[in-house]
Amino acid sequence: MKKALITGASSGMGRDMARVLSGMGYELILVARREDRLRELAEELGTPCRALAADLSDVHECRQVYFAARGEDLEIVVNNAGFGLFGAFTQTDLETELRMIQTNIMAVHVLTKLFLRDFRARDHGYILNVASSAGFMAGGPLMATYYATKSYVLRLTQAIREELRHEGSSVCVSALCPGPVDTEFNRVADVRFALPGLDSASVARYAVSGLLSGRGVLVPGAAMQLSLVAKRFLPEALLTRITYHFQKRKLDGGMTPSGEPSTGPDRP
């Protein structure tokens, strides 16, 4: 049976990608901090699942996830775990930001490198790194660290993909870059976005299809695709000011200015 590993599988897009892959017949290794949520999901799905509880902000636990799954002959690895933090850089909590950097960057880096070595050795496999449309932006005032982490994920993925292309490798490494995704958190907090939030299940289907088709950068939603084309014609300084304006609207939508963590589309 085909096998896939998904981090951040306890909620949001990670959970929905698990449903999509299970529907395609994949046996799953589900990774997140909340083991109870993983077991609930495993009971729901129609294919064999194994739950691995891990805090991916800890490099040791990232390695443990790899060692626990490396002998499973995986075909797909989805690096989805991550979270955001809203607020002015001088006001956000440093410890939370460091944990976000570890989760959004370090975990993706470690798991991509370790599993990619195995995939490259057998010349087969797929890795999907969940970035964000934020990764395309020059900067993200009021979510500065989050935007920076997603830029890292996007650029790392693009560079690895080019290395594999030059080698003639059959391994596919892709980046998913969604804009706003409609989540329970966003509805409760009444967060207002410049663009309508996409349905998480639809984004999951789009992501899996794009990955297995071998596409490099996956941007769901026509509105976000058009906005990324339009941004090429605007100076970076102006884009940063526009981003600040749209982020500031979140304060008017119910978020606190003190930097509360946001689940976003890819919470661990």
How is this structure best described in words?
The chain has 268 residues and is of the alpha/beta class. Helix content is 49%, strand content 15%. The chain contains 9 helices and 11 strands. Helix 1 (12-23) crosses helix 7 and helix 3 (59-69) packs parallel to helix 4 (94-122).
Strand segment count: 11
Strand order of the largest sheet: 3-2-1-4-6-7-10
Mean pLDDT rating:
85
- What's the shape? globular
Low-confidence stretches: 184-194, 254-268
List keywords for this structure.
two-stranded antiparallel ribbon; 7-stranded parallel beta sheet; 268 residues; alpha/beta; disordered C terminus
Short précis:
With 268 residues, this protein is α/β, with parallel strands linked by helices. Helices cover 49% and strands 15% of the residues.
